[in-house]
Amino acid sequence: MKTKHLLIIIYILTFSSCAQKRELAYFSNLAPQTAEKTIRDESIKIQQNDLLRININSLNPESNTLFTVNRQNAAGATYEGPTGYRVAKDGTITLPVIGNIKVEGLTITQTQDALIEKLAKYVKEPMVEVQLLNFKITVIGEVNKPSSFTIPGDHINLLEALGMAGDMTVYGKRENVLVIREQNGKRIMKRLNLNQEDVLNDHFFNLMQNDIVYVEPDKSKAIEYSPNTRIMPIVIASISAVAVLISAILRN
Question: What's the sign of the alpha-carbon dihedral 42, 46, 51, 57?
Fold first, then answer.
């Protein structure tokens, strides 16, 4: 009987030191009643080095050719280009006929409106579509599929990014997700708690181009993968064997 008690005490002391409660659900502190929140307008702003696809059309097909750049490849075949307009360091793009136009700091909608205003001098009722081609985010750390992702639209929030990365692993700290952002030549870092309802209104919840999301592992993973933890089963087995041996000797 003493041997059984000894073994039970050994197991309790060993595993209670390693066991930790992990909150795996998102928004665990959310109130049970339905909550309504006003959605903040977090449209991305165009930055230096962004690549924009700009499609220009009007009611007059002949006028549309003014804004089409034709090039020839090595075989002499003609194709329409460019595939995108790169935002220069001064925040401008250069379009045929129009020339330079400042777009840095504008949203996609504001850029379209600015181009329509410029184009109205040359064509009747211009129609403009602007698309950001290099909207990229990176998700690393304790997620199932860490990677960089190119976003087809112009909006993505933190939960959507985690979904693209296969969600967090069981070791990911939902209360401490780091977002790294470059803005106005500075690197800004913000930690978000995905257990709190207020995170939905945080400026960093909606991601911007080139944001990096880092999911930090909790202490349980460090314990699990530490050298001491790996030899723990051997230690327990050895202690158990010694306890059984001592018990057998005492009985004799």
Answer: positive
